[in-house]
Structure formats: structure tokens, C-alpha cells
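Two folds, back to back.
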Amino acid sequence: MTTTPAPPCAAATCTRSLRTHEHEAGQLLCTPCVHLIGVWLQVELPRQIIVLEASRQRETTGSSTGGRTAYRTAPLPGRDDILNLLGPAAWTDIRDPNGDQHGTLSILGVLIPWARTICDTRRWNPPALTPAVIADWLARPAVLDWAARQPWAGDMRDELHQLMRTVRATTRLRPQHRPVPQLCPRCDGLTLVATDHQLYIECTGDNCRAMYTREELALAARLDVAQHGAICLTKNCGGATHEIPAGRRTLRVHYCAPAVLEGAQR
């Protein structure tokens, strides 16, 4: 009996293959990618927009000579890179016969075409044309789950990925990556990394790249303690205590090798 290999996730920036249940449900994007899009649109982008709004104006410094600084041309009233990102965008297609429309797309310039595609196909009323409102609308489960099953789902994920890269490069605010003090259940490497707002903790080992929820890692820690060690109650034990994320709480697991326990009992 031959098994058909699982198709890859439709996003060019994702290296994960679809799981059986994802493929049977008609998804073209893997579940981590769908969750990540929701995090970008509902959690990170609104916060980035606040920083962009507060950074419109150029920084002003006094002249080193003590006089006024002269410009050949009048400077822009704000930072052009941020003004471009926060600028408006049309709901309909724009013709550019002179070829002078270039530069970085604004946030609305990326979000509006996808909202328009979905609204035209599903015959839904469009949301208000503000970045925060459109981002929240695109991240609604009914909208995002449907979009993840469309032929252009990979393109949507890749464009949003590029948008977030551009925004982060402008604000210099990026999600934090934190090492997790627990061995990977698959490769036994100390290579687990947790990223802000991410649903999964990922193994960064080149030959592994496994992904786990926090509950799965908490269960793996309990199993590891049951199989290879024990909970040590000795006051002066030299074992190590690790904090492992488990949902909204943190599980404190004390690892103590059997040899350490035998020495303590003697």
C-alpha cells in the first residue's frame, strides 16, 4: 500500500506540510499559518499602527553652528516612509498610464485588495476603510477560515508576511524569541523557541523543525519526569528546576536524576 505524500502549505514562506486533517478539511494553508495571520492582523498590526501614528513627525535637532539649517527644497512635514505606510488607498483598481506610481504599498494598499476579493466573491458588505477595522475584519474566523481554503491563500499569506516585515523594519519593533528550557520531545535537542503571540513553540534544529503547543510540552515534561527521574523533595538536592509554559500558567518541573536521588537517600 502506497501513501500519498502530504502537500506543502501554499505559502511560499512556510516550510510545513499539511496534516491529514488539514488537507481533508480543504485547507491550503496550514493551521500555524492561519493562526499567525490572525495574530498579525488582530494583535501585532494594531500595536504597530499606534507606534507609526506617534512617529509621523521628523526628529528635530539644533544646528551645530547655532544658526538655522538651510534646505535647497522645503522638507516634508513628516517622515515619508511612515506617511507612505499610513497613507490612503482606493477600493477600486488604479490605472497608472505614466508609470509614476511606485514605492512601498501602504497598509491599506495591502489589506483593501484582499477585503475586496473576499467581499466580491462572498457578496458581503465591505468593512470601514481604516487599517485597524479592515485588519480585524480579515482576521475574523468566518473570513480567515474561508480564505485559507482559496487558491490564492498562499499569496495572501506571503503579502501579509512582507507587509509585517516592512512595518517592523520601520518601527524597529519585532516579536521576541525566547528559548524554552526543555528538551525537544522529538530530537532531544535543547532547541525549543517560543515567540510572542505564537500558538506553537518551535524546535529550531535543522533536522527537526517540530512544533508543539504549550500543553503538549507540559505533558511531555511530566512523562519525562515519570520515565527518567522523579520529583525530589530533598532540601539540598542539586537537581535543576525549570519553568515550562502551560497555557496561561507556568509549570515548574524539578528534574532530578536517579543517581542524585540514591545519593540523597543514603
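---
second:
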Amino acid sequence: MRERVPEPPLPEEITPKDLHPAARNELKTLSKENAEQVARHLAMVARLIDDEPARAHEHALAASRRAGRIAVVRETLAITAYATEDFALALRELRTYRRISGKDDQIALIVDSERGVGRPDRALEEGRGVDRAALTPDVRVALAIAMSGARLDRGETELALGELEIPELNPDRAFEWSPALFSAYAAVLEDLGRADESAFWNQRAEVATSALGLDGQFDEIFVEDGLVEDFDDDFEEPADDAADDTADDAADAADAADAADAADAADASDAADAADAADGTADAADTASSDDNAEPVASDDSASDETEGEPER
């Protein structure tokens, strides 16, 4: 019997209520005690991710060992892996999150993680594989920036510029994602030697930032307040995709050896991603535990009946 990996300490002041209600809602399938501990670990991730990503990652791993079949847990682990530059683990967890939830809202992170492991061609394939019209504007913008970065990795500067020329590239309107989009566009223009245009878009980025900071410097930009939506109102339970689960069972069985050491989720994930590079099957890999309290191992969904150092842009 494997010895349980010690969990990082949780400050007494951290309670389940510190986690966003939408995320807590996903934990309702867990036992009360386990759900509370998972919620506290996820709340610690939110507290630490910006300043101490390595510590945040420890709490994400602890949550994953307790609740590996919960979409928000796998998403959180992917984000902390990305923040600590473990792009192979990030990819594995992002694919598992997408399969469990049925969502493409982290497609930009998938593209960027493919760049992180040195596969810009695969990054572009991933980005082209989604219906952009079905994405929300903020996800579509993030994807455009990631795709532009992949083009730059390949030395395709003109195509990198084209990736950013999306309807959201409007210098007269500011949304929460506008400064990043404008700045990315300015950077590529500078790479192309178009200094005047680059300066214009840098200035638009500054004005958008100022406008969104609500300091009165709105200039010519119209701030679209309606874009910011309440996550509680938008929240949907993760989809239980029986078809995906059936398709993934065979791959899960083949990859079960990858998670032989449940105490080291990162190593298991790296092994699975190496297999993905060879034959593209890591999309089905799932290190989730078979119940609330088990440590993460490669999952067999049919048996359970459930289910930033970042790359330079």
C-alpha cells in the first residue's frame, strides 16, 4: 500500500467560503469533509498563484489527489503547472479538463503549452481545431495572441500579424482583453519595421488600460461595461460526455502505467505527454482517482461511472 503524500499546510483562516461559489458548486459530489479540504486548497491556489506559483502548485496537486475527477480541480492543476513552466503536465491536465468539462475555454493555454514544449506546428493545429465563432470574445482574443506567438516561433511574422487581425481589434473600444491584444499587435508591427503603426497601437493599449482603470482618461475609447459577466449567472455543471468516456477507456488502459507512482503526478504526466508526442493519444490520459480520497492515478472512467514563466509571445 502506498504511503499518502503529505499535503501542504492550510492556514486556519482559509475556509471553503474563500473559494468562488461556482467552483464550490462543482465539489458537491464529494463528501462534505473532502469537499471542504479541496475547496481550501483551491482557495490557497488563488491566493498564491501570482506571487508564489510553486506553492500554489503544491496545493493544486493536493486537491487533485483528493478530487481528480472534478473539472475545476484539473483546470487549476493545469494552470499552476503552466505557471511553473511544466508545460508537459499543463498539456495533460488541460486535455483532461477539456474532456471532463466539454469546454474549449482553455484552448489558448493549450496552444501556448504546445509552444512551451517546442511544438509550434502542433500548437497551430490545436488552435485551428476549435470553432472560434463558438468561443467567447475573451477566449477568442487569448487564442489569437497564442496563435500569433506560434507563428512567430516559426518565423512567420506576417502571418503572426494576420492572426491578430480579428474583429476584437478595434482601437475605439476597450474591453478587459483589449490592452493585451493591442500590445501584441504593436509588438508584431515593430518586428515588421512598421514603427509608426506600432506606436499608434501601443498608444491605444495605454489608453485602453487607463480607461479600464476608471481614472477618467477615456480618450476616444468606448468602454463596453456589458462585457464583464457575473460568473455565477453563467456557471454550468461540467458535461458528462459518455461518448468521450467510451472513446477514452482504451487509451486510459494503455496509459495506466504512466501513473504508477501516485505520489508524483508531474512525472506521470510527463510520461503521458511523451507518448502524446509519439502518437497523439495523450488527449485521453486521465490521472484522476477512482474515488474522493484516492491519490491520482490513470483513471478508468467506465469502471467508475462518473467522472506565468510562459512562452515568449
